[in-house]
Design a protein that fits this description.
- The complex is a heterodimer of chains A (117) and B (231).
- By secondary structure, chain A is α+β, with helices and mostly antiparallel strands.
- Chain A has three helices and three strands.
- Chain A is 28% helix and 21% strand.
- A three-stranded mixed β-sheet of chain A has the order 1-2-3, with helices on one face.
- Chain B contains eight helices and seven strands, in the order H-E-E-H-H-H-H-H-H-E-E-H-E-E-E.
- Chain B is elongated and about 85 Å long.
- The N and C termini of chain B lie far apart (54 Å).
- Classes of the chains: A alpha+beta (117), B alpha/beta (231).
- At the A-B interface, helix 1 and helix 2 of A face helix 4, helix 6 and helix 8 of B.
Chain lengths: 117, 231
């Protein structure tokens, strides 16, 4: 498992101006860019008000958001479909948590969580 | 058409594969034009696989040795070489006028076609043709330059559907209503879906009304019985 990002042209264009783009397609591209598809497939995202405990954990516990009140934030749930083989199965949850934690950094206004189907 | 590059632009416009076009050295071509097509004012090239070119018009230095009158050997080689060189020169011609923006747009197109926005988006992208694709990519580049915004999304929707009206709900700040006079069909639905995925922030919810407008009290045109959409 690596934390390298793929080097597509769009990625370079995005980094050049580094603007916040919070669209569905861009989120998908961001997740795809981690190249962790051998572990799981990203299906969709959903915004809810319900309190839903995700199946992932926060990897960036040391980064504190001092501006926003987390309890009031809406939830952004990312849905994944696990597809790793036997030898990699034990890492799926961690890989998903890594992705969710990275997404959390660009979406501070939401509380992000992951879910498997 | 006068110059070589116009062939490529025309081919791209009408969806002709440039590999199917063969260029030949025209021995009796006009000295005032680079292309010697059948008609002087010809505007399109559909149906013409062979295009005669006055190779001495701009590229005398390259071709002067190839077509001397006393030269009769290697005819096949010379003609395919001419074809090859002219294809390359044509593409160089077009690139010469390329701006940085066009270059970025080309790269975006390549990546979308490679599926970086997912398979669905890739298929939906292919529904956009010609001009539409051009403004779509310009919009996308603008999006990367200045961030995604509601204004940009509304602009894109208006570009595609010029009879559309976009409403932003007062009660629910995350709800958008789009009305278009066009009939609902799968292509249109997919295209709008692509635009919402690519240009609209994830917090918005979009409701689309085809053909019939929802009623607005006080606006007589929208309050005709049997022509009101439910909302």
């Amino acid at each position: 498992m690596q934390n390298l990002r793929s080097e597509e042209s769009i990625e370079k264009i995005q980094k050049k101006w580094n603007q916040s783009i919070k669209t569905k397609a861009e989120l998908l591209r961001f997740i795809k860019g981690f190249d962790l598809e051998e572990y799981m497939e990203y299906l969709d995202c959903e915004i809810t008000d319900e309190s839903l405990t995700g199946e992932t954990y926060d990897m960036n516990t040391f980064i504190e958001d001092e501006i926003r009140d987390r309890r009031a934030a809406r939830k952004l749930i990312l849905t994944f479909k696990a597809k790793a083989d036997e030898s990699r199965k034990w890492l799926i949850r961690d890989a998903a948590s890594y992705i969710v934690s990275e997404v959390q950094r660009i979406y501070p206004e939401y509380e992000c969580g992951g879910k498997f189907v | 058409m006068n110059y070589l590059w116009e062939i490529l632009l025309e081919a791209e416009k009408s969806g002709i594969d440039t590999n199917k076009i063969t260029f030949v050295h025209g021995p009796l071509s006009s000295p005032y034009m680079e292309l010697s097509l059948e008609y002087l004012n010809q505007e399109n090239i559909s149906g013409f696989n062979k295009v005669e070119v006055n190779t001495y018009y701009r590229f005398y230095k390259i071709f002067k040795e190839l077509f001397q009158p006393e030269l009769t050997d290697y005819e096949q080689l010379r003609s395919s070489l001419t074809n090859l060189i002219l294809h390359m020169l044509m593409e160089n011609d077009v690139r010469r006028g390329m701006t940085k923006e066009a270059y970025y747009k080309k790269q975006l197109a390549v990546d979308i076609k490679a599926g970086c926005y997912g398979k669905d988006a890739e298929e939906r992208y292919l529904l956009f043709k010609g001009e539409e694709r051009e403004w779509l990519l310009s919009g996308l580049l603008k999006c990367y330059k200045s961030g995604s915004s509601l204004t940009l999304f509304v602009d894109m929707i208006h570009n595609m559907l010029n009879d559309s009206v976009t409403y932003h709900s007062q009660d629910l700040p995350d709800e958008l209503l789009i009305y278009t006079g066009q009939r609902k069909n799968k292509n249109l639905e997919m295209k709008i879906r692509f635009l919402t995925d690519v240009f609209l922030d994830i917090r918005y919810h979009v409701e689309i009304f085809y053909e019939y407008h929802f009623g607005i009290i006080g606006l007589e045109d929208t309050m005709i019985i049997d022509e009101i959409a439910m909302y």
